[in-house]
Request: fold
Amino acid sequence: DSGVTQTPKHLITATGQRVTLRCSPRSGDLSVYWYQQSLDQGLQFLIQYYNGEERAKGNILERFSAQQFPDLHSELNLSSLELGDSALYFCASSLWAGQGLGNTIYFGEGSWLTVV
Amino acid sequence: GENVEQHPSTLSVQEGDSAVIKCTYSDSASNYFPWYKQELGKGPQLIIDIRSNVGEKKDQRIAVTLNKTAKHFSLHITETQPEDSAVYFCAASSRGGADGLTFGKGTHLIIQP
Reply:
C-alpha cells in the first residue's frame, strides 16, 4: 500500500458527461500529480500541484482540470468526455515539488474510467 | 521534450535466470532515472532509481546502470523469481522535473517456472 488513496476505483459514464476523480496523498506529502495510462499512449503526465498551487503541466487537455485543496487532497475533473478518454487515471504524491532528483513519487492504485 | 524508448516490450525468462531491460532517453539534461514495477490491478511502484552523477546502483537482486554519454540506462534482475512477473517501466526526468516524469512504454516480464 503506497498510502495514496484514489476514489472511485471504477467509473462508467456516457460520452459528453463530466466526472470528478479524487485523490488523497500520503500523509505529509505536499505534491500531487495526475497521470493517465492508456494502451496506446502509455503513462502520461497530466498535471502537478504543490501545496495548493499548480506546479507543472503536461499533456492535459483543455477539457480536463484539476485542483489541490487546503487539506492537500486533489480532484481531477474531466468534462465533455469522449470515448478516447477511457483510461486508467493515477494520482501520485511526493514530499516536495521536484519530479526528479530523488524525490520519490508514490502512485495510488488508479481510477478506471470507461466512457461508453 | 524528453522521449524515452524501452526494449523489449515482452521478456520471458526461466526462473533463476537474469533479466535485462534497456531504455534510451533523448534529453541530455535529464538527471533522474527511476524504474517502476506495476502488477496487475495496481499502481506503479518505485523499485530503484539512479541519478546522473552515479553510474550504477544495486539493491539486492536488482541493479541499474546508466551511461550518460550514450544516453541509455538498464535494469538488471538476477535470480528471477515468480513474483518478479510484472510490467516494468523506466522513466526520465528533465528540466528539474518541470515536464514531469517521461515513461517508457513498459516491458512485460514473464518468469517461466
